[in-house]
Amino acid sequence: MIPLAAEAAPAAGDGQLIIAALLGIAAVVVLIAWGKVHPFLSLILGAAVLGVVAGLGPEKMIESFTGGVGTTVGGVGLLIALGAMIGGLLAESGGADGIVGRVVGRVSGRTLPWAMAGVASLIGLPLFFEVGVVLLVPIVLLASLRTNIPLMKLGIPALAGLSVLHGLVPPHPGPLVAISSLNADLGLTLALGLLVAIPTVIVAGPLFGNVITRYVPATVPMDLLPTRAPGGSGGNRSDDAAEPARERRTDADPMDEDDLVNPGAGRPGGAVDDTGTEAARRTPAFWPAVFTVLLPVVLMLLRALGELLLDEGSAGRQALDIAGAPIVALLAGLIVAMFTLGYQAGFNRGQVSAVLGGSLPPIAGILLIVAAGGGFKQVLVDAGVGTMVADAAEGANLSPLLLGWLVAVGIRVATGSATVATITAAGIVAPLAQTLDRPGVALLALAIGCGSLFFSHVNDAGFWMVKEYFGLTVWQTIKSWSVMETIISIVGFLGVLLLDLLL
Asked: Which residue ranges make up each domain of the chain?
């Protein structure tokens, strides 16, 4: 783990450190928001500004930054890569589509928003937010068209499920960075994060979706509807997909599985027959796919339970400590996924290897941002900024949870990056973790995660992704997506405060 800030002697006086921290963070914000510089480079330059103003010598500054990068990649980067591989298999095999089709296809229209929130949360465990949106949007659009349910009534629950899991639950980058920076217990943070996530998804998803539907009368963008049938068979959009509104099902009619298409069909890497043409793909079975998604989570939760219920040094405790170690849990999930998702879908060994390899390039940018953020955070630590903030918070009697949330909110609104907000906020409040017990440190990580989701707007790539996929105007996107993200941040933080009172 990265050393805590309290272990570093301040490099300068409080006034100089305050100026250094503000200028370093301002450099990152200005470069990202105004200069449109990539966050990776912005964090490097921001760390340089911070180090110079704080009085760190060149050698110390370089050593601090590179040490933070190495520690972060070694701890968090491996987990992100393994999670991306599981998500890649889930997406390319059609396993995610099968889960969506099975759940959504067996509920009536009135409960469809709740089902959409549930299935988004499930597949959001291993998938990055952007991948989840790409997979779910075609289903949301077609379901809205077929049932005549307003688009936002289905779209908001799906987006809420994906966003909450992305911001609060490992193995997503933000939660992992906060856990590593604060030296929090991963299993306990995961368990508490799931407790916070459930009511947050409900409030920001189906409940808010039911309200915002009245103010955002969005219509289905017909050009984004899927055009392939399940199994990868080609052909134009079915006649049913273009049926007139008067012939659409009502909310009371259940949807058949045939009503849902497989938006993942036809992706590169599908099974190929002897003629060189793409063969029909076998969608992985529902329960094995669900088991694969949940396996790493269950292993990490069992480890947390073992720490609470089993004696230290016992055989059962040692077994759970090993099996529930994040890298072991994710590696086990990946190995299982190769069989339950890859080979079950008809992929040969070469195709499974291609899918695993193909899942890594898209996360290169995320890994670089996380790594540079780790270096930036370590410069904060070694300059003594964290120690200064901890002393000031103690003197002002300010709650560490509130401070972590506020810092993350400010950086999120300024930069548009949840990852940058999480990294920077965790570095600033890391010394406060020393004053908290195990549950308190886990809750501090969750408070920072909640703050990092606050009010996504025009400087966030996710804002534009939602706008285009749902065919919204900028103002409609603010009223729906931006407000939804704010609700997630506030409700999630209130859940963290409630757990803090109970634990």
From this structure: 5-80+362-502, 83-146+217-359
